[in-house]
Design brief:
Shape: elongated
Number of strands: 5
Largest sheet: 5 strands, antiparallel
Strand content: 35-45%
Number of helices: 4
InterPro entries: BamE-like (IPR037873), BamE_dom (IPR007450)
Domain Outer membrane protein assembly factor BamE: 34-116
Signal peptide: 1-20
Keywords: Membrane, Signal
Order of helices and strands: HEHHEEHEE
Protein name: Outer membrane protein assembly factor BamE
Length: 132
């Protein structure tokens, strides 16, 4: 009887991990982007809005500076849940995920040419549950 319960638990946990997977939101063009690949693709004073859109797609957000210059922001977040999330009862008290975020921000001049850009990649841990 005990081995049947253990087998059921193993199958249940395996299925939960398999079906839960990871969550990705944002611009998937950034998935394989690195600092060096951004430097190779964007040239300040030369790359245009069209060049940026061809390389990275449409921005997640478009804003403007006080002087009217356009800023495009690209973001990608990828969360991988911790294994403890899938342990019955324990997951309600302490759960979390490793979160990787990439952000590309591009500032254009009045002519639509890249004036400045920044790229960052951060890793964080998101925690939740009653015990957090």
């Amino acid at each position: 009887m005990k081995s049947t319960k253990n087998a059921f638990l193993i199958v249940t946990l395996s299925a939960a991990v398999l079906f839960a997977g990871c969550a990705t939101t944002g611009n998937e063009h950034l998935e394989s982007v690195t600092q060096s690949s951004v430097q190779a693709q964007i040239q300040q004073g030369k790359s245009t809005k069209q060049d940026i859109q061809e390389a990275f797609g449409s921005p997640n957000k478009t804003t403007f500076t006080d002087s009217g210059l356009e800023i495009w922001t690209y973001e990608l977040s990828h969360a991988t849940p911790h294994a403890i999330n899938f342990v019955p009862i324990v997951g309600a008290f302490a759960h979390g995920a490793d979160v990787r975020k990439k952000t590309l921000t591009v500032l254009f001049d009045d002519s639509g040419v890249v004036k400045k850009y920044t790229f960052s990649e951060t890793t964080d841990v998101a925690k939740g549950g009653i015990g957090q």
